[in-house]
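**Reference record**
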Amino acid sequence: MVSFSRRSHSALSKWLWTVDKVILFVSLALLTIGIILDVTASPAVARTIHVDDFWFVRKQVCYVLASVVMIFVLSMFRLRTIRQISLAGIIVVGALLVLTLFFGFETKGAKRWISLFGFSMQASEFMKPILIIVTAWLLDCGKKYDYFPGMWISILLFGAVAGLLLLQPDVGMTLLMTAVFGLQLFLAGLPLFIVGALVLLGVGGLFGLYFLFPHFHARVDQFLYGSDETSYQINKAMQAFQNGNLIGKGPGEGTVKLNIPDAHTDFVFAVAGEEYGVWLCLIIIALFAVIVIRTLKIALKETNLFVMYAEVGLAASIGLQAFVNMASSLHIIPTKGMTLPFISYGGSSLLASAIEIGMLLAITRQNTASEDKDLY
């Protein structure tokens, strides 16, 4: 019989008393909201590809179950295991990014997806948490050992990943990873004058991206001048929010969502606004804010630099991606084609979010840092 006493030495009991239950329950709540929204957002899309109304829902439930298992399994690992998984993962996922350039299939002018064993996957989604852990490890080792150039190795590694993403091209994901890695470098003590120079370089890089990548150029022009098909999606999303108003039209009663092509993925936040109103949108924002703020609060108390770099990086990744998706739906920033973590339909997005939160729970567990402080 399994005992859940604090004195029990079972792995399950230790996990129960050391895992951050707030982050865990908030993540499960977001997954639940995702299923609820997919039930009403996906039938119209399913009809356009001539499958039954709940085809996407069944697949999403399978993805959610797999994600929950992923969260629980990863959250039980020690720091050493998380680092080992990430080190192996960056090799495998890096190879998949290379293969995507040659064997991936093109969607909306970019090669971001590759078919593997009959399943379509977006390798860049899985690179996010893995790269955050590896760069945090490198930066920590650079602080611990004077002879180890951890910061420079992490910069070279990030540059290689960013280069592969830009070749797809996936400008949105590149910018997201750049922001997270820049935050990690800042925490690692990068001199302020270099930080300022990098900010200026980043601004110049945005202008370069505007002129080099037609897809990025079109998205910015659409945001500024309001033209093309993307503008149609944004206009419909804004209509959905207006139609929902404060309390929403009710579950399944939304009508504007029927005319949004990506209602179950990139614009699922608009579906939430139309059918459940402002109150659900605010709840979703609050749940993401809880994950980010609670993680940052834990990170402020950390003495293990690897744990702090990884915690802040993972929280920033989740928070920034959620902000980009929601801000795009509200026409605050140009559309990025980026999913809403835990909520948008899609196996790659859900499983990658599960990996992020599972690793976050593993490294925020009480006493985890002291258990692994000498294992590098």
Remarks:
- DSSP finds 15 helices and three strands in the chain.
- The beta strands are 105-107, 110-116, 119-121.
- The two ends are 35 Å apart (CA to CA).
- The chain has a mean pLDDT of 86.
